Amino acid sequence: MSIRPDWLDPEPHVARVEAARRRDVHAALAAEQPGIAEFAALLSSTAAGELEAMAQRARQLTRGHFGNTIQLYAPLYLSNYCTGGCSYCGFSSDRKQPRHKLTEEQCQAEMSALRQMHIEEILLLTGERAPEADFEFLCNFVRAAAVHFPKVTVEAFGMTEEEYRTLNEAGCTGITLYQETYDPTLYEACHRWGEKRDFATRIAAPDRAFRAGLRTVGIGALLGLGDPIAESISLYQHAAHLMKTHWQGGISVSFPRLRPEAGGFQPPHPVDEKRLAQLIFAFRICLPDVPLVLSTRESAAFRDGMAGIGINKMSVASRTTVGGYENGRAEDNGQFEIDDGRDVETFCTMLREQQLEPVFKNWDAVFR
């Protein structure tokens, strides 16, 4: 029996991508309510020749649904202890690098540094569940962060529905949880040991989070692991499933590409910037009101070009090391190397020069 859920079957749509003609691409660009057939057409090599038209349509939809704004957030790494065996990750338990976790005092210093940068939305991160940084450790820092930030989200290990409910009660508003790859065979090969090795449990985690009362879930595929066409179609199917099943909540979609890390993992299916732009435009055209997120993994030039043209939310001034904001920890390896290292002021100046308004304030606190 397949471990894939019923809603996940990319193969028929991969065939549509390969068969797409110019008329199919034009029809997708003109569709008022595009679906997966149109999405497949927009992923095709034929659509790659229509990238400017896709960009214009994506820009129109982004500005129409989100205005001339870019929502900003910053990640805060609480711990790099990890029991997982992800072959592509700098935090994997077989990586030879110093391990750290924040104390309460250090976390307060990190949060103070972020507040001085005017950050109001933070994403708390850890490695996979470990004795040094378990659920209680994470939950305590969620409570601490919720005192100071209007929006606190978590990117950590998959949890039970009851654990997600406890996070919600502690002040967490949502989670980010990438499936990494939607190919079960590749997933097993990449996740060599640890809790995360269970494909079915991982892919059902966003459903558990929504049932527990969390308001937002961010999903994504780690681009470079698997075939980008099949991964993108599966990611679209995942988004469609969550929007249909948990319509009261909100989802966002991220586009993380593999970056250099301590283990030297090389992407088997590298995705260049042109292909990445095409994927983002396709998602915007077919999911016009879903927030699309681009992190500092990408270059400054690429992020500048995508701001407001598909992308409406970005991380800024990110550090992927534990204690990176207050103490620097430049001597340590982070989870991966970032590319866009600009500070908040420089980044916001760029946005304003493009007639885009950086948005720090999040109004979720009003609804608590």
Quickly list its features.
368 residues, alpha/beta, TIM Barrel, 15 helices, 9 strands, 41% helix
Question: Outline of this structure?
Answer:
This protein is an alpha/beta fold. It is built from 15 helices and nine strands.
CATH topology annotation:
TIM Barrel
Number of domains: 1
- The strand count comes to 9
Rg measurement, Å: 20 Å
What would you call the quaternary organization? single chain
Question: On the 0-100 scale, what is the average pLDDT?
Answer: 93
How many individual helices? 15
Give the C-level CATH assignment: Alpha Beta
- Helical residue percent band: 40-55%
Secondary-structure-based class equals alpha/beta
SSE layout and pairing:
Blueprint: H1 11-19, H2 22-30, H3 36-42, H4 45-48, H5 51-66, E1 69-77, H6 104-116, E2 121-125, H7 135-148, E3 151-155, H8 161-170, E4 174-176, H9 184-190, H10 199-203, H11 205-211, E5 216-220, H12 228-245, E6 250-254, H13 273-286, E7 292-294, H14 300-306, E8 313-315, H15 344-353, E9 357-359
Parallel strand pairs: 1-2, 1-8, 1-9, 2-3, 3-4, 4-5, 5-6, 6-7, 7-8
Helix pairs in contact: 1-3, 2-3, 3-13, 5-13, 6-7, 7-8
